[in-house]
């Protein structure tokens, strides 16, 4: 009873009730980035011995999570470094989140000069696109981020781009 009266007195004075801690949910997934297929998709590594030798492990991926469904220049709510295809887990409150890799950290910075034939609005749209959008309403175990790097001839924001894969000798 005393607690109720104290809370009523605070509210009467214009004070806000104490903020409740947000409920955090476990969000798990895997991040991967596949390199561009420099062969244009026609190369079969089984037909050329020696090309499928072990390669060094790729560097860790830096993952940024921002509130909302669009990548914007906002402070990330979470940042983590994960190995390729390694399981990660983070805690997030209910909401919608945009996950991107670190190369999209700064949204407004054009990565190519306009003088080189790059369409600045197109580049901005691509940088605002999330690599993954997660809707957290409870525990989520499918918060994966998968991205395939574009080859130079697949670049959409430069009309002067090459028109096909390089020839293989």
Key traits:
169 residues; disordered N terminus; 3-stranded mixed sheet; Immunoglobulin-like; 4-stranded antiparallel sheet; 27% strand; alpha+beta
Quick take:
By secondary structure, the chain is of the alpha+beta class. It has two helices and seven strands; from the N terminus they run H-E-E-E-E-E-H-E-E.
SSE layout:
Layout: H1 2-12, E1 24-34, E2 61-67, E3 78-82, E4 87-93, E5 95-101, H2 120-128, E6 132-136, E7 145-148
Parallel strand pairs: 1-7
Antiparallel strand pairs: 1-4, 2-3, 2-5, 5-6
What is the CATH third-level topology name? Immunoglobulin-like
Strand residue content: 25-35%
Roughly how much helix do the residues carry, as a percent range?
10-25%
Q: Let me know the CATH homologous superfamily.
A: Immunoglobulins
CATH architecture title? Sandwich
Q: Oligomerization state of this entry?
A: single chain
Q: Kindly give the count of domains.
A: 1
Spatial ordering of strands, largest sheet: 3-2-5-6
Number of strands: 7
Sheet/helix structural class: alpha+beta
The average pLDDT is 76
For the termini, the CA-CA separation is 85 Å
Q: What overall form do the CA principal axes indicate? A: globular
Helix segment count?
2
Q: Which H/E pattern describes the elements?
A: HEEEEEHEE
């Amino acid at each position: 009873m005393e607690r109720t009266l104290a809370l009523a007195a605070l509210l009467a004075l214009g004070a806000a009730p104490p903020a409740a801690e947000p409920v955090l949910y476990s969000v798990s997934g895997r991040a991967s980035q596949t390199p561009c297929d420099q062969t244009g998709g026609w190369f079969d590594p089984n037909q050329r011995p020696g090309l499928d030798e072990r390669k060094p492990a790729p560097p860790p991926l830096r993952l940024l999570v921002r509130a909302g469904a669009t990548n914007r220049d906002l402070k990330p709510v979470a940042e983590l470094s994960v190995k390729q295809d390694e399981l990660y887990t983070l805690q997030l409150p209910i909401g919608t989140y945009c996950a991107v890799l670190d190369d999209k950290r700064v949204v407004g910075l054009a990565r190519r000069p306009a003088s080189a034939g790059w369409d600045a609005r197109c580049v901005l749209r691509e940088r605002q696109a999330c690599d993954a959008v997660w809707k957290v309403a409870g525990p989520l175990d499918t918060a994966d981020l998968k991205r395939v790097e574009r080859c130079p001839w697949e670049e959409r924001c430069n009309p002067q781009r090459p028109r096909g894969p390089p020839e293989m000798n």
